[in-house]
Structure formats: C-alpha cells, structure tokens
Amino acid sequence: MKGAKFKSAIREWIEAAAFAAFLAFCIIRPFVIQAFKIPSGSMRPTLLEGDLILVSKFIYGAKVPFTNFRLPALRKPKRGDVIVFIYPEDIKKDFIKRLVGLPGDTVEIESGTIYVNNKPLLGPVFNQRYYYNRGDFAKEGEKIVVPENSFFVLGDNSGSSKDSRYWGFVPKDNILGEAVVIYWPPQRIRIIK
Q1: What are phi and psi of 118, to 5 degrees?
Q2: pLDDT, position 166
Q3: Residue 161 catalytic?
Q4: Higher pLDDT, 30 or 84
Q5: How far is residue 169 from each of residues 165, 189, 192, measured CA to CA in Å?
Q6: What is the enclosing helix (H) or strand (E) of 101?
Q7: Angle subtended at Cα 97 by Cα 183 and Cα 46, rounded to the nearest 5 degrees
Q8: 56-78 pLDDT, tens per residue?
Q9: Rounded to an integer, what distance in angstroms lies between the CA atom of residue 71 and that of residue 60?
Q10: Of these residues, 63, 97, 150, 164, which one is catalytic?
Q11: How far is CA 34 from CA 59, 122, 182, in A?
Q12: pTM
C-alpha cells in the first residue's frame, strides 16, 4: 500500500511540474513577461552589464509565435520607453534601447541634444545625457523622418551604443516588449525609467 501511495505522490508531482512548465513556456514567456540579461554598456547608467530584467510582452500586444498576429495592446509604445526588439540587421539577436522617435517624427541631434519635430527633448531621461552625431542616420545638421510603422531608438550611453544612428529604424513588428524592472542583482532592483 505504501508503494502505491508513493507512486501516486510521484505522479502528482510530475503532473504539477509538467503543468508549471507548460504555463511558463507556452503562456507566460511568449505572451506575458520574459527575462533578459543585459550584455553591454550601451544603456548605461540606466542598465548595467549583467543586469537581469523583466520585459512586459503584453503591454504592446504580444506576438503569437510562428504567426504575424499580435494580441490586442494595452497601449502604444511612447517616447522614453525602454524597449526590447529584434535587431533589424540580425533577427537572431534581441536589442534594448530607449524609444526616441515615433512614426512621422522628425529627429535631429544638435550639440548633444535630441530634437523631435524641432523641439528639444527636455525630460529627465533625455536632458541628462549627451548624444553624439554618429552614423548615417544622425549626421550633424541632418533631420531624419521616421517612416510609418517604425521607430527611432537610441542607447542611453550614446558614446558606446550601436543604435538607430547607425542602422536606421526599428519596424513595429520587431518590438517584443517594454523593459519594466531590474530584478537582479539585489542592490539594483528597481523599476526601469
């Protein structure tokens, strides 16, 4: 009798573990939230190398795997959001940058300041940094118009970031979600702004 109870307990444990794995890999990760590790210093000081972050996939409408379909979004991406997206030049890589230009915006970098639609970005996430004129999409004195269904993104560490200044725009379909919280290491736990 004890052997049957033991086998029943093992079976229940295996079923619970299988169900938890199904939820994690088939529901939570693709549609709700996903963990990422920051590999470089391109988002310093907001994000440091090795930070582990959680990215909300449902906020912009999660992509249904193996299709071009998206679930309904809670809101559209907005200027200042820190987003994770599929790198336009290598679809096997995910990148993280700050959203600067929305579809139809005119973006220019002048004397270290970002101008959108001829107005300087003065919010705290933008005015505390110096942005360099580098790459084909941020030449001095040149204004770039963000195409429809695309976004212009920059790293917070402008001197050490390969971003829209170099390779252009992020297609809307490449956006995976918004970075919402640093959860590791413990001394850096915080909401990402």
Answers
A1: 70, 15
A2: 97
A3: no
A4: 84
A5: 9, 30, 23
A6: strand 94-101
A7: 45
A8: 998 998 887 778 888 888 999 99
A9: 8
A10: 97
A11: 12, 31, 12
A12: 0.86
- The number of beta carbons lying within 10 Å of the beta carbon of residue 120 is 14
Which residue type is seen at 174?
N
Is 53 within 8 Å of 108 (Cβ atoms)?
no
97 is catalytic: yes
Say what the alpha-carbon torsion angle 99, 102, 103, 107 is, to the nearest 10 degrees.
Answer: -100
Q: Is residue 38 within 8 Å of 47, Cβ to Cβ? A: yes
Asked if 181 contacts 192 with a C-beta cutoff of 8 angstroms, the reply is yes
How far apart are the C-alpha atoms of 12 and 121, rounded to whole Å? 57
pLDDT in tens, 120-171: 999 889 988 999 999 999 999 999 999 999 999 999 999 999 999 999 999 9
Whose CA is closest to 52, among 177, 183, 193?
183
Average pLDDT, the chain: 89
